Amino acid sequence: MLTQLSIRNFAIVERLDLDLNAGMTVISGETGAGKSIMLDALGLTLGDRADSDTVRVGAERAEIAASYDITLIPEALNWLKEHDLEQDSECLVRRIITSEGRSRSYINGQPTPLAMLKELGQLLVDIHGQHEHQRLLKKDHHRVLLDAYANHTSLADEVKRHFSRWHHLQNELNVATEQSSEKNARIQLLSYQLEELEQLGLTETELSALEEEQQTLENAGDILRSGHQLLALTSDSEDENAIAILNHCLQLLDNIQSQSPRLQQANELLNSALIQIDEAGHEIRHYVDCVEINPERLQEVTERLTSIYDVARKHRVLPEQLPALHQQLQDEMSNISRSDEAIAELKTEVDQALTSYLKLAESLSKKRQQFSEKLSKAVDSQLHNLGMLAAHFTVQLTPNSQKTYNAAGLEEVEFLISTNKGQKAKPLAKVASGGELSRISLAIQVVTAETSNTPTLVFDEVDVGIGGAIAEVVGRMLRKLGDRTQVLCVTHQPQVASQGHQHLFVSKTSQKNQTQTRIDLLNDDRRVHEVARMLGGIELTDTSFEHAREMLRVH
């Protein structure tokens, strides 16, 4: 349940800290005072999109924090644990929006993506908006409402997953079948190309080795001349060579009678140089011994390289890319040469996937059929409570053809209504008036909320267009919900406001050319005054006050 909401520099709110309790909390105030600001701020902590316009004028950023007691919400506890975000039985969600439009989200102090915030938010709060009835005109929304009421989300997810697998395998089978009819010409070309590459037999390292060998063979004379000169200078010359000179230097250094550290360092350096010159000579000798002037081998290497370059040009790739091309063509040949037996196996997989999808989808259809009847009766009951005594609400399931099977299941869901006795039920958009649609929406919201596992339910002016005795019924409905879960309700109706377990009053003031919104928890006296104000009239009279007290005494 939502226990605290803190708002800083959001819209026309500079600073606001609200402590919230269980039960039904009513939020009221003059039109334009900013009653929905609190819910808009709450929505941001649940993953709603934000923009820089929400930041209070003159402030650098807006910050909203919502604290939840999740002791009795195992789904939220498990979600936090799975994402390594658990923190006892409390969950703190924070959202920051800068004046430049940037946004950051935090769960229990850890930065998190907005998608994760939204995922967690669905386990904590369910918001029913004042324009919910407009969505009722869209048939796609009817299935969502039925599935939410039936609480078979996991089964619906399984149906979606199995449909995706069947659809993917079917596409793969279609591609394989098309390839089977067109593959002969491609196989002939691939066979020729592969035979040519296999005859060439180029390995990954051969090209670089050949190019290096060619360069050595072409320059063998110069290499040998320079190599022998190097050997003479390092060790082979009888007159003078580097090793002899270094040995002479060491003898001279040894003749100096001194223990100077500098001379000792010089001795070490000369010995090191002697060793390195000797090793260099061995390496040069080894290299020179491997070099020979061989015109026949040079011709062989040149011809081999020419063959490689010719094949590369033919395939329009670099020579070093030929081994990769060979592998690529082999893979294509393997795929395109799929046998009729392999296609038959794939068809079997498609049939099995379809069977699995249909089995789950049929199970989902049975549950939808079962709960569509329950939802119809429950909404009918609430509509009668809301004064639509002749109304008859029906959830209609229309089977799809096999061509229109989809991830949502085997049927379309549509809400129908008959508002007068003897009248055939028709789609909502063709029958219900604006006022009737508001009541139908409210009835559906109350019914689905009764089966919701979400611990906090928010109703934002869902009683628009309803008044008098019907508004009192609405208030009782919401209070009944508040007896088992936390309910927040923005309302203009005194009959609804009087039903709340606690009452928040929203007011707006102007100071120093700035407008501010504040929210106060009303005590009993102030609550009587607010209900009297909501009852209407230019002046508040003793009669209106007494009427307000009577409405509040009922509870």
Automatic annotation (TrEMBL):
<keyword id="KW-0067">ATP-binding</keyword>
<dbReference type="GO" id="GO:0006281">
    <property type="term" value="P:DNA repair"/>
</dbReference>
<dbReference type="GO" id="GO:0006310">
    <property type="term" value="P:DNA recombination"/>
</dbReference>
<dbReference type="InterPro" id="IPR003395">
    <property type="entry name" value="RecF/RecN/SMC_N"/>
</dbReference>
<keyword id="KW-0547">Nucleotide-binding</keyword>
<protein>
    <recommendedName>
        <fullName>DNA repair protein RecN</fullName>
    </recommendedName>
</protein>
<dbReference type="GO" id="GO:0043590">
    <property type="term" value="C:bacterial nucleoid"/>
</dbReference>
<keyword id="KW-0227">DNA damage</keyword>
<dbReference type="InterPro" id="IPR027417">
    <property type="entry name" value="P-loop_NTPase"/>
</dbReference>
<keyword id="KW-0234">DNA repair</keyword>
<dbReference type="GO" id="GO:0009432">
    <property type="term" value="P:SOS response"/>
</dbReference>
<comment type="function">
    <text>May be involved in recombinational repair of damaged DNA.</text>
</comment>
<comment type="similarity">
    <text>Belongs to the RecN family.</text>
</comment>
<dbReference type="InterPro" id="IPR004604">
    <property type="entry name" value="DNA_recomb/repair_RecN"/>
</dbReference>
<dbReference type="Pfam" id="PF02463">
    <property type="entry name" value="SMC_N"/>
</dbReference>
<feature type="domain" description="RecF/RecN/SMC N-terminal">
    <location>
        <begin position="1"/>
        <end position="512"/>
    </location>
</feature>
<dbReference type="GO" id="GO:0005524">
    <property type="term" value="F:ATP binding"/>
</dbReference>
